[in-house]
Task: structure prediction
Amino acid sequence: MTRILSYNILVGGTRRIDQLTTVIHTADPDVVGLAEATDPKVVEELASRLGMQFRLSGYGKGARDWHLAVLSRLPILHTHVHTRPVFDRKYLLEVQVEEANGSPLTVFVIHQRSNFERGTESNRIRRAEIQEILSIMAPYQGQPHLVMGDFNSLAPGDSLQASRLLRSATHKHRTRARGTSTTHSWRKFTRHMVSRAVGVVVNNRAGSFVVDKVAPNYARGGIDLLLQAGYVDCFRQANPTALGFTCPAIVPSGRIDFIIASPELASRLTTSRVMDSIPGIQAHEASDHLAVCADFA
Result:
């Protein structure tokens, strides 16, 4: 069996190495794809603690250098970093490993930007990225491969409980406001009023219904393009009716982290799950995303 884990570790994971190690160790994966691997020292330390090799899309110098990483206990055969103008966050990381039976397995790791404030234009950006990824993966047709990461998109048919997310966010905003000075700048006052207005909308049934219906329109990337090309959403294949929400970890409201396998690899899929229960810690202590894993016989 080969176990794959996809995990967004939140701006490098600095100062959360113990918690990240616990999550990954609990999953016991053979290969891990990391999004937001902005701190190379964290990746190196995780690899050392877990007894794995690692590859990076690059060595970031700042928290917003949106690099990717792969950890592997399987032998690494080759690595390639794809850079394209169409990639909003610059990189697609390709790593080929050797499975226990000696066969090659190629994994691609991506982190797509959200840009939800740009409305449906954000969908166009992510769809263009997926079309480029399909072009890059084309030479591997007929061979086992997968693409995983944070797609900041919903799969066709998936829901987004945006009202739940907004209720949590407005509650946090009001809690912070109560602990600050009564002297507010105009900007703070405006944010406060917007938060109050949003709170009114999402704290009644009709408002929540409208928000939950409309919000998914701003999170339609290119998952459908991958599915139309024959790729398989591993979690949904293994769990036809489960929500599988992965983000935000403290109040999961949508599924935006995926492991998507080629038909050859998907035929070997046995299980897939979201790592929402971690012995010894709360999952949100490690990252704002939940990890997702898939097992292939």
Summary: Residues 170-198 have pLDDT under 50 and may be disordered. Residues 232 and 261 are 5 Å apart (CA to CA).
